[in-house]
Amino acid sequence: MTTWFKPIALYTDLYELTMAQGYFKEGKSEQHATFDYFYRTPPFGGGYVVFCGLATLVEILEDFRFDNDALEFLREQGFEDAFLERLKTFRFEAEVRAPAEGELIFPYAPALQVRGTLLEAQLVETLLLNLLNYQSLIATKAARMRQVAGDRVLVDFGLRRAHGFGGLHASRAAVVGGFDATSNVLAGMHYDIPLSGTQAHAWIQSFEHELDAFRAFARQYGDASVLLVDTYDTLKSGVPNAITIARELRDRGQSLRAIRLDSGDLAYLARHARAMLDEAGFPDVKIAASNNLDEHVIRSLIAEQNAPIDIFGVGTQLVTAHDDPALGGVYKLATLNGTPRIKLSDSLRKMTFPGDKQVFRIRDDQGRLYADAIALDEQTHIDRIHHPHEPHKETQVGHLEQTPLLKPVMREGRRIAELPSAFEARTYAREQLAALPAEHRRFKNPHIYKVGLSTALRDRRDDAVAQAHRRIPSSASNNQQS
């Protein structure tokens, strides 16, 4: 990691440190707290989110500290010496509970909990949100592309369009969501992702003739050659020249791997290129396509236009999550010193669920995902769930299989569970998506997945609301209602 990313403890918003100093001066910083991470609205008009970023977060939290450079900078910003002395010895020693990476997570259900001192839980908020929101967003976008691509190859081409060094995490998240490879060499090294890359138009243009460019490339890379055929004229020049190279490679006992289309009417060009390759005796040469692809374009190319494309290289639309570029995950205080805490709102949708909690994944009698129950931490089985915002709606679930999702992954600041690789998380995500009924996975008007409160948690929330209202002066309460 480049030196200007260090110290990672300063990768935060100022108000986290401002509050942390305030807690310290008020004697509250060592009080025990629980914070919940969750989101309220699925991105892309969809019905789910693929949970991603946990491995990155755990890796950073294990080494989360303030070095001398960080402390000196904070001193220059006006932070007080006594507080800086506390930060000098700070280590993240909290417990972190979360589902497996690659799990499907749904609105309002906690997807990660931090249980530790108020100081350490507050200091990691921005970092946690930054990592989980972004990687989960990209993994979800990638999963939608995998859904429509079937078993065709998906390659992440997004680094040059990514938001700075976020491209590294985007490549990893793309794999968790279902991609096969990346052009990002650093991501390939860090996350053991297969690399895929061809050539740019500059390579072709650097030679006097397109055929010379193809021939030089094939001479160097042999069986690994993928030729970009749209620099001049795809069907009159690019594909015929690629066929010439395919013949020359065959004469040397090698095979041309693929051609790539990067512009124009991809379906039209792919159909004609396929016919030309097949007629020339090269049915095994693959066709790759790139250029502003997303799940909607890929679905159209395959399902509506019958384009014979084997490999999709996806860039901008993936790594920027172009049509919904932020996941609104939040991080809210749920418990302080054993006392449940709640954030009030005029809308039930914006209220938090107080206390330490567990989330149960409920499956129907065929093993399909049916509902999530948000429950008190001490509960072990849920008989019924209540709609979080529409109190008259409830569902009986006591007869169905129930599995707790939130499991310890860190304790005393050290990992206690083995974290999966990107490809292991991809396998798990694929299994969970296969168990999610199709009506929840469709792109338009997906069915809303059931997420409900146990009766005990609903009652706790209602009690916490009543107690909070009793603490509000009557004049303030009247103003709030107005």
Number of strands: 21
Query: Helix/strand-derived class?
Result: alpha/beta
Estimate the global geometry from the Cα principal axes: globular
Specify the number of helices: 18
Describe this structure in words.
The protein is an alpha/beta fold and 482 residues long. The protein has helices spanning 14-25, 54-61, 68-76, 81-88, 118-123, 125-149, 166-177, 185-191, 201-205, 210-221, 234-251, 266-279, 295-304, 316-319, 422-435, 438-441, 455-470, 474-481, and strands at residues 32-38, 49-50, 95-98, 104-105, 112-117, 153-156, 181-182, 226-228, 258-261, 286-289, 311-314, 330-336, 339-340, 357-363, 369-376, 384-386, 394-396, 401-404, 407-411, 414-415, 450-454. The chain has a seven-stranded antiparallel sheet with strand order 13-12-1-5-3-19-20. Strand 16 and strand 17 (394-396) form a beta hairpin. Helix 6 (125-149) packs across helix 7 and helix 7 (166-177) crosses helix 15 (422-435). This is Nicotinate phosphoribosyltransferase. It catalyses: 5-phospho-alpha-D-ribose 1-diphosphate + nicotinate + ATP + H2O = nicotinate beta-D-ribonucleotide + ADP + phosphate + diphosphate. Its EC number is 6.3.4.21. Residues 10-133 form the Nicotinate phosphoribosyltransferase N-terminal domain.
Summarize the structure.
GO terms for molecular function: glycosyltransferase activity; nicotinate phosphoribosyltransferase activity. The protein has helices at about 15-25, 55-60, 70-75, 80-90, 120-125, 125-150, 165-175, 185-190, 200-205, 210-220, 235-250, 265-280, 295-305, 315-320, 420-435, 440, 455-470, 475-480, and strands at about 30-40, 50, 95-100, 105, 110-115, 155, 180, 225-230, 260, 285-290, 310-315, 330-335, 340, 355-365, 370-375, 385, 395, 400-405, 405-410, 415, 450-455.
